[in-house]
Each structure stands twice: as C-alpha cells, then as structure tokens.
Amino acid sequence: MNEREYPTPYFVIDEEQLTKDFSLLTDSLQASWPNYRIGYSFKTNSLPWLVTFLKAKGVMAEVVSDDEYALANRLGFSDSEIVYNGPVKKKDSFVRSLLAGGIVNMDGQRELDWLEEVCRENPDRIIAVGVRVNFNLEQCCPGQTTMGEAGGRFGFAYENGVFAKVLKRVRAIPNARIAGLHLHSSSKTRSVAVFEAIASMACRLKREFDLELSYVDLGGGYCGGLPGRPQYPDYFPAVEKVLREEFSPEETALIVEPGISLLSKATTFVTGVVDVRDIGEERYLITDGSRFNIDPTMIKTSHLFHLELGPKNGRERRTLAHQCVSGFSCMEVDRIFEYGNGPELMSGDRIIYENVGGYTMSLNPLFIQYFPDVYIRREGELLRVRRRWTPSEYVQNCMMFGEEEKI
Ligand SMILES: *Cc1c(COP(=O)(O)O)cnc(C)c1O
Q1: Which residue out of 257, 262, 265, 267 has the highest number of ligand 1 atoms within 8 Å of its CB and is therefore the one to mutate?
Q2: Burial of 380 (0-12, 13-18, 19+ CB in 10 A)
C-alpha cells in the first residue's frame, strides 16, 4: 500500500534513521570511552518495538518506577540488564536488582534503610550500589538548567552536606560498596558545557571523598538530530577530556542514559486535515491529530513539519497569511500552531510533524480518540508495530456496573 493510503493519524519510526543515530552514539562513545554502557530511558518512549529494537543492539533498560522495571523484565531484560533510577522505586525490585548485580542509583533516604537491610540479610555478599548526586549545576552553567535558581529535586544534595552523610552511612555497612555516581540533570540548553560540568562534578566528588568508582553515570539530556545543535560526537570527546583528570576507561565505565536524542530525528506523526472553517477573521483547520499527541505537556511554541498536499479537486489554492492548525479534541487549547504565509490547506492534505519521538507516545492521553497506530518504515515500506487502541483496549481491566470487585 502507498504511504498516502494509510489512515491518519499515525506515528512512523524510520528504522534506517534510528539505526544511523544509534551508530552515531556507539561510534562516538567507542572513540572517547570504550568502556561504556547505554541505559535507554524508558520514560522517553517505551513503545515495545522500540525497546526491543534497542535491546537487540545491546542497550540496558533505564527505568524510574516499579511498573517500568516490570515492563523491562517483560520485554526480556534480566535484572542485571536494568539501570534502576528515580525516587519511587519499590523495595522488592530494589532488592532484586541489587542482588542480581543490576545498576541501582539510590535517590532517597528510605533506600538507605533498604540497603542496610539487604546487606544485613546477605552478610557474605558484597553489595554494590550507586548514589544519585544533586548539585548546583545552575551555578556552573547560569541560565541553562530546567529549574534555574530553584535547583532540581532529585538525588542527595552535595552543597548542604547530605551527600557526605549518605556516603558515611553506606561506608559504615561492612559489605556495601559505592559503585558509582549518577549525575543526571535536565537542562534547557542540552549544551556540551552542561556535560562538562557534570563530568567535572564527578571528578571533584572522587577527589573529595576518595571514591573508587566502577561507573560514572552521566544520565540523559543530550541533543540529537537538530541542525546547529550539539550531536553525540560533540559531547563525548569533551566529557572524556574532563573525566581523564581523575578516571580511566580501564577502571571506570561511563554510563549514558539517552532518550529523546536517539529517537527525535527518526520519528514523525502524520495527520490529515479533515475540515476547514472560517470564523471571524480566522481560518481554522481541523486535523485528526492533536496537540496531545505531539505536545502533551503543552510547552512547545513551534513545530518542525512538512506538508503533503492532496488533490485540489478543481479548487484553486491561494496563499493565506495565517491558518490555525488545530486538533481533533474538543478543547479550545488544542490549537497546534499558526501556519503563516502558506498555501491554503484543504481537507485531504497531510501535515507531518517531525522530531516527535520523545515524550509524545509515552505521554499521550486516552482523551476523545485513543492511541493511534504506530508503524516503522523499513526499506520504503510501512510495517505496523502498534495497532491503534479501540474501545476493547479501553475497557480492559474495567468493571461495569454490577461487576464491582471486592479486594
Ligand atoms: C528523563 C531521564 C533520562 C532521559 O532524558 P532525555 O532528555 O530523554 O535524554 C535519562 N535519565 C534519567 C534519570 C531521566 O530522568
């Protein structure tokens, strides 16, 4: 079937582009720090096809909840192939991961209690654990961090001495060992300087606390696939230079947790114009995609897109100063973008959004229209990797009136 005949809306992941971007990542890591592990960030997009594609290429699963942990297991990752992060771990999976030799980065006091307990119960085992560091990145890179002066809320704070106390507590456990530091920080700029600052913090902590680390985990937050912005080959040589002051690849692995940078360029969302209407001075285009599909957190101010114009059916296309492209939902905020100075769009035309791989599918709501189809493009052909949701999927796990469950 010709691509134009597939019913909209749908996401497409271009397998060739994804492969290329993945190779760019591994090639640049290999060149700068051959002792590396990639923990793919599940929360960014845990589409089972995507995750299993990346698993086949040797990545670990980077998860931040018990549900994601279970999903990783379900998709074939053993406990030792999971990087377990975040502040809402559950005790069962925390303990399982530690005992299996998975990578666990502690992010909260209750995990210290759990660690003490596991170590007490397994006195003949050495338990290796990582610690997530919270430090003032904004001071190193003014104006670049997501939270600015307010600072992030994850990990143990370095500046006020909490991190030092945590180290002391872990060091007091005879059979526990600090294996690594986790320094993920989100930034607005995703600049190379942010990652240099993170690497520099790892060096500083190693010196100050005399750590012997089997890994330094830089986290995610890279740019990828955007013209004029940094790419993987820009980050890792810079990081290497800083890390070399204190670390060597022979002793310390570099862990990276990419999400959006891997998927962006490969992923598009295809929508169709279903109706055109004039109200007041404004031309509205109603499309079968929604802002909820590609901007579920409602923060984007512009979109990368291209058009595929359909048959005009004898009508003339004028050039219009603005057309308001809006979504299928019945919410007024579902206006996707203002299309300026372009050909008059008509029903049957397609608007294809680019760079929509991260934080889209994973955040889509079941609002008014259910999850759309997802395809991959392989050798010019679209192959389906998720069937769109219908009311059958919507009602799964629900009880009707008269079927209430007592638990
Ligand atoms: C969100 C997140 C990532 C991935 O971030 P991207 O911006 O998608 O690269 C990696 N690690 C952790 C701990 C995260 O919370």
Answers
A1: 257
A2: exposed
